[in-house]
Amino acid sequence: MEFNIRRAVKADCPRLMELVRELALYEKAPEEVTVSMAEFEEAGFGEHPVWWAFVAEHEGIIVGISLYYIRYSTWKGRRLYLEDIIVTEEMRGKGLGKLLMDHTIKYAKEAGFSGMMWQVLDWNEPAINFYKKYNSNFDEGWVNVSINF
Q1: Is a pLDDT exceeding 80 seen at residue 144?
Q2: Residue range 7-29: mean pLDDT, rounded
Q3: pLDDT, position 98
Q4: Does the annotation mark 107 as catalytic?
Q5: pLDDT at residue 131, rounded to an integer
Q6: In the chain, N or C terminus with fewer CB closer than 10 Å?
Q7: Mean pLDDT across the chain, nearest whole number?
Q8: Which residue in the list 26, 81, 107, 131 is annotated as catalytic?
Q9: Using the 8-state DSSP alphabet, how is residue 93 labeled?
Q10: Integer Cα distance of 5 and 26 in angstroms
């Protein structure tokens, strides 16, 4: 199966949001996706973008994404934060996740980041097992904290 991986463009945003909603459904939290299309597009392709993405296409259709942003660690410096890696349900198990992950890691190294980080739900065994193949470090001593406005 052939995939084309490229940088996302603004015209991809409606399809990217479809994949984000598919992920939210898989993670049993579809109601948590509250971002508007206008905000999503502005945040990725406006005057001061805060996220970037790679898309994976199969036969001209986006079937996977790797969406990231830059995080700064006072201990480690610039790091790529992988917000989401999403592969459509019908394309899982075909090596697409690995292609997206490898492409993102390659980009992070070439850009001079000190590393890459992300989160995974503790019950998502398929994702955890996938990430373990990369000799990833799982931080058990940290608790996620947020404030919603």
Answers
A1: no
A2: 96
A3: 95
A4: no
A5: 86
A6: C
A7: 94
A8: 131
A9: T
A10: 23
Q: Give yes or no for a contact between 102 and 67, defined as CB atoms under 8 angstroms apart.
A: no
Q: Which helix (H) or strand (E) holds 125?
A: helix 125-132
Reading across the β-sheet that carries 52-58, which strands appear in turn? 4-7, 52-58, 61-73, 77-87, 116-117
pTM assigned to the model:
0.90
Q: Of 81, 146, 87, whose CA–CA distance to 118 is shortest?
A: 81
3-state secondary structure of 70: strand
107 with 63: CB under 8 angstroms? no
**Element (DSSP H or E) covering residue 69:** strand 61-73
More confident: 100 or 142: 100
CB atoms within 10 A of CB 80: 23
Tokens for 78? 């610039």
Q: Map tokens 């006072």 to a residue.
A: 74
